[in-house]
Amino acid sequence: MNNPNMPGTPKSKFLQSVRDALGREDVPPTQPYRRLTETQAELEEQTAQMRKRLEDRLPTLLDKLAQMAALGGWKVHRASGAEDAIDYIQSVARESGTTSIARSTQDVFEQVPVDAALSNLGIKVTTILWDEDMPRETLREEIRQSGIGITGADYALAETGSLVVLPRRGLARLISVVPPVHIALVRAKDLLETLDDLFLLRRLEYHQQGGEMGSYLNLITGPSRTADIEMTIVEGVHGPKEVHMIILG
Amino acid sequence: MSQQAKITADLFVTCVVDQLYPNVGVSVVKVLRKLGVTIGFPEEQTCCGQPVYNTGFSQQARTLAMRVLDQFRDTEYVVVPSGSCAATIRVFYLELFADDPELLAQAKALSAKTYEFSEFLINVLKVENAADCGTTYQGTAAYHPSCHLLRELGVRSGPQKLLASVPGLEQKELEGSEICCGFGGTFSVKFPHISEGMVTDKIANVQASGADTLVSCDMSCLMNISGALNRQGSDIKVRHLAQILDAESD
Amino acid sequence: MPEIKTQDFTAASSQAILDPKLRRALDRVAEGFHVARLDRIEEVTQETWDGWKDQAREIKVHTIEHLDYYLDLLDKNVAAAGGQLHFAKDADEANEIVAHIVRTRDIKVATKSKSMVSEELSLNPVLESLGVEVWETDLGEYIIQLAEETPSHLVAPALHKSKEDVAALFTDKLGIPYDEDIYNMAATARTVLRDKFMEADLGISGANFVVAETGTLVIISNEGNGRLCTSAPRVHIGITGMEKIIPSMQDLSTFLRLLPRSATGQRITSYVSMTTGPRRSDDEDGPEEFHLILVDNGRSKMLADPNLREALYCIRCGACLNICPVYSRIGGHAYGWVYPGPIGAVVSPMLVGLAKAKELPQASSLCGACREVCPINIDIPKMLLNLRTKTAESPDSTQRTAPEMERVLARLYAKLMSSPRLLKIAVRFGRFAQKIERITPFFSPLTKDGKWIRKAHLPILSRWTRSRDLPTLPKQTFHEIWQKELSDE
After folding, report:
1. Contact C158, C185 (CB under 8 A)
2. What's the structural domain count of chain A?
């Protein structure tokens, strides 16, 4: 807490009252927490083992991802290739009747070029990538007007059937929550098995980057939902009503 | 019946059974004797202290608990026809005396040899078949597991297995059996409106089960439930497990 | 602090229990969440579930034991990520921090996602007094904000409201035609709040977990409002209790497996959102400022008492509420303060003062169902007993507030039960009173078979006989039968 004008208790005082409550002096844990003592090398080793496991079990895990994602409320499409994926996206777009779509800037769109196919349907496609000509405010407005948001995946978790997105340049936080429909393209290489795998990679990145891993992470499993009125489930409350996961591979 | 050395056990009859349901105590003695157990009964016993313990009066609870520690010091086994009293002695005495090494040692020793009635039959006497007790029961019975028996002592299936083996007895499923009956000791008179709500639901389930008898290992629960059943004009009987196993019980 | 009504527990619960609509609503929630939770456990097997619970408890025990260490670590890492961590010793201080940010950042509109801790602070009136337009965005919270009520459940704050209630509320407050269709009502909320999300200068959230290792705030949610509150505005303030901290991001796996299943019976919520500092310079969007306020507000009292420390392990899943036969009958409002149900019966007295909330720990049959369902194996009955002992015997007179009558009765009981002789006399008196019951005022005539008392006029027994019959004293005690018949064998 750096600002002397900011109200609040100074850290030293707050920690002192915690120590008083615990009845002891300023003493770190006698047994350091295992996870917090793991070195980057150890995390890299664990990651290598994880990668091997994922490689060995890829087909099973892809099936599990599809199964769990569907259970979680994703509409899952196993695409036979880029063309099939594009066809599916076109059908979703037609179904929605939207005239405006936003998509992120991610590698997967080189593999699956959607822009032309959507333009052919008379749909405006905005690519999220801010710069001088396309400032953030404009992109934000575009996302607001879009009927569909399309992203790739940073990861996909088989355990829970979830998409993981790490917002950054080219990938807005709002693109996967504001438009009423969200389509996500998942490649085999995005696949992870468990939540443990995901957090291992995040921590590895954190260490490798000297204590940095980006500002946000979203784990998305199905559409937005609520049961707040009489326990009746309604989908599409504040987030998307419809979410599609296209699995390539 | 399993052949084994003569077992001697002291009975901690509990104040509820002693004062209100002595026939249950009689059935306990008869059943255990039939199974070859020599029964002792320290006559100075009164109450394990649970009512004062549960209302937070630990000093008074210690006074009563120390009598129990003393009276049952030398016996090999203590049998208690109540899940909640057995839990008090076996589990809560260890809390009560946590800060007194000498008394804690005594409490641990007592705890190690204290059994609720059905536990004693199954775990110590290795009785699995109620026919060993020579009993029969013509009727339909549902079983209510008391909360302390279930959750403090972890006794889940024993009593029902014994009931299942009673010749003539037809078991009925009790909906929501693991939901508290609403007694909770002084809770029943401190918050009668809530307690009433709970026992009302319990007897609705008992009535819906189609049983003519409700069996439990705790007379405090049965006092609560039967009090409500009777008020409703129901003629469903309540019986302690020991009474079902006692062929001579009415 | 929100208005404390814990002292009205008996009156409030007596009233609540007579409300059949509330009962139906509570049954619906308990049934729905409870059954789904059991399904989820069966799916993974009890063994796996127990393993997760043990792991979670181990993490919490360690963290709370070393809370100072992890708070310090968290502070360093929040700062390293470009965020600001603030420590608030109480509600007033937390509100001052928020007020300061509001004033210096020119905040006009704020959107809020669910935060029970912000209820402790009564934050909304503070914001409103500063001229900030505050919008609760969680559908349940939005409903009770319109209704000017407090939440009645940890996870489903508006569960006490029927769809008719909500429809009437929307008509009254939003001026729209009456419409009971639940889908339409949710759509109305979506429409109203859509613009607010994008308009807001400030987003306020709670936190399910804060990770010391990386300075990360974690929110699990289903509606998407949590994401919008933490992504769209230029300033984000997260407010939570200091006990929400966990050491490593790796620990999240265990908690993410336990919390959704325990709370709503979901395998995982629609969203898990993790914030580590404000947006980075290259990001497309996200808040420019990230503030995390960690609140004590009485938690150090629980920390200081080894008997009550485990109340701080709670992850606010609400499973104990859903299973509790007391909560299921009286609902959340009867508990009179922010936290209802079994965990509330421990936390509320500790945060508002035991003397003010002394009935809460008493209103339990100690059935233990809460402990059975708790994903962190928290022994709530043990803590309730501890609070009862404090009420009866604490050396601190501000806690030792048990009525004198109770004290007298407890001493009397112990005296009676310490003396078999005295007890015999008391029993003889009781039998005599029964015999002459027709001419005594103690109870109404017995039933024909002499086995039951229909109505007792004595103070405590009369409460029993309001709805239950009381068994009469038998002719002999077991002691007497033993001495006469049984001792010879």
Report:
1. no
2. 1
Specify the DSSP class assigned to residue C232. Answer: S
* Chain A positions in Cβ-Cβ contact with residue C99 (cut-off 8 Å): 7
- pLDDT over 70 at C350, yes or no: yes
Give tens-digit pLDDT for A5-18.
889 999 999 999 99
Q: How far is CA B189 from the centre of its chain?
A: 21
The answer for A 6-65 residues in CB contact with C (under 8 A) is 6-11, 13-15, 17-23, 26, 28-29, 33, 35-36
Residue of B nearest to C423 (CA): B46
Q: Is residue C217's pLDDT more than 60? A: yes
Distance from the Cα of A110 to chain C's closest Cα (Å) equals 20
* CATH assignment, B128-245: 3.40.50
Q: How far is C284 from chain A (nearest CA, A)?
A: 5
Q: What confidence tens digit (pLDDT) does each residue in C67-92 have?
A: 999 999 999 999 999 999 999 999 99
Report how far apart the first and last C-alpha atoms of chain A are (Å, whole number).
49
Q: Rounded to an integer, what distance in angstroms lies between the CA atom of residue C452 and that of residue C464?
A: 12
Asked whether the beta carbons of B40 and C489 are under 8 A apart, the reply is no
ipTM: 0.97
- Residue A29's identity, in one-letter code, is P
Which C positions 17-76 lie with beta carbon below 8 A of chain B?
17
Query: In degrees rounded to 5, what are phi and psi of residue C456?
Result: -105, 145
Q: How far is C438 from chain A (nearest CA, A)?
A: 53
Q: Which structural domain range is residue A181 located in?
A: 34-248
Nearest chain B residue (CA) to C391:
B56
With CB atoms and an 8 Å threshold, state whether B180 touches C369: yes
What's residue B250's pLDDT? 60
For residue range A209-249, list pLDDT tens digits in order.
Answer: 999 999 999 999 999 999 999 989 999 999 999 999 999 97
At the top level of CATH, the class of B7-122 is alpha beta
**Amino acid occupying residue C165:** D
Residue C438 pLDDT greater than 80, yes or no: no
Cβ contact B148–C478 (<8 Å)? no
What band does A1 get if pLDDT is binned at 50, 70 and 90?
very low
Q: Supply φ then ψ for residue C165, to 5 degrees.
A: -60, -45
Q: Which distant-in-sequence residues (6+ apart) come within 8 Å of C314 by Cβ?
A: C243, C343, C347, C376, C378
Average pLDDT, chain C: 95
Count A/C contacts: CB-CB distance under 8 Å: 274
Cα–Cα distance for residue pair B57/B64, rounded to 1 Å: 11
Q: What is the CATH number of the domain that holds A206?
A: 3.40.50.10420
A145: in domain: yes
Q: What's the alpha-carbon Rg for chain A, to the nearest Å? A: 22
Question: Which domains does chain C possess?
Answer: 6-300 (3.40.50.10420), 405-486 (no CATH)
**Which chain B residue lies closest to C464 (C-alpha atoms)?**
B189
Q: How far is CA A55 from CA A78, A154, A156, A188, in A?
A: 19, 17, 14, 10
Per-residue pLDDT tens over the stretch A50-65 = 999 999 999 999 999 9
Pick the residue of B37, B180, B224, B249 with the most C CBs within 10 A to test the interface with C by mutation.
B180
B positions 81-140 inside 8 Å of C (CB): 95
pLDDT tens digits, B185-203: 999 999 999 999 999 999 9
Higher-confidence position of C192 and B3: C192
Partner chains of B (3+ C-beta pairs under 8 Å): C
> pLDDT class for B71, splitting at 50, 70, 90?
very high
CB contacts under 8 A, A 54-113 vs C, are: 68, 71-73
Query: Domain limits of chain B?
Result: 7-122, 128-245
Give mean pLDDT, residues A107-122: 97
- Asked whether residue A108 is domain-assigned, the answer is yes
Is-same-fold flag (B7-122; B128-245)? yes
